[in-house]
Amino acid sequence: xxxxxxxxxxxxxxxxxxxxxxxxxxxxxxxxxxxxxxxxxxxxxxxxxxxxxxxxxxxxxxxxxxxxxxxxxxxxxxxxxxxxxxxxxxxxxxxxxxxxxxxxxxxxxxxxxxxxxxxxxxxxxxxxxxxxxxxxxxxxxxxxxxxxxxxxxxxxxxxxxxxxxxxxxxxxxxxxxxxxxxxxxxxxxxxxxxxxxxxxxxxxxxxxxxxxxxxxxxxxxxxxxxxxxxxxxxxxxxxxxxxxx
Length: 245
Fold this sequence. Notes:
Blueprint (H helix, E strand, L loop, with lengths): L17 H11 L4 E4 L4 E3 H17 L7 E4 L5 H12 L3 E4 L6 H11 L3 E4 L13 E3 L4 H5 L16 E6 L9 E5 H15 L6 E4 L7 H7 L7 E4 L2 H5 L1 H6 L1
Parallel strand pairs: 1-10, 3-4, 3-5, 5-6, 9-10
Antiparallel strand pairs: 1-2, 7-8
Helix pairs in contact: 1-2, 2-3
């Protein structure tokens, strides 16, 4: 096939942003299981409603389109709801792996300057005291009061950010890399063309959220009606537990 004959897709179209692709899939298969962790499984409809509530609650806290928001949560269904919620309010997520040393987390926060860090109560000690935090597990009442049927209407800027991820720092101080929605849409579209995931498929998510292969592992299945299965950190490190999973 000639390059000129290939299907052209406008990856700058917000309907092709990953959170909107997920929402479209949730409308098609609301009762299918979307994400599974060690203790919980959530349907597409439940995940859609949870992430919508997070997006509205972030707006109440002053988060606007283009703002960076830290994401420091356990490997769970709630991690995916938080990530989608950040994107749905137009913000860009900054993945913060709670297994990293607190000094590394502090350096990342100082560099990225997120307006807020989405986290859990037991992780507060990992974050600098000056970091503005919102503990999802402490504020279920606020979430319960938020609209759940749809995300906020966003006036998207041109070529918006999806996330800011940090390099390993092997050649010096880690640097934050800005990744835009168009790039993520292009990646997911390309991988789906190769893999042809279907609702019968399961994808095991192993990578830390601070490694950008996690974007593929966590989110590609959710754009295709498949199921994301999140391995715990211990399962990912134990070959016997991993084989069993």
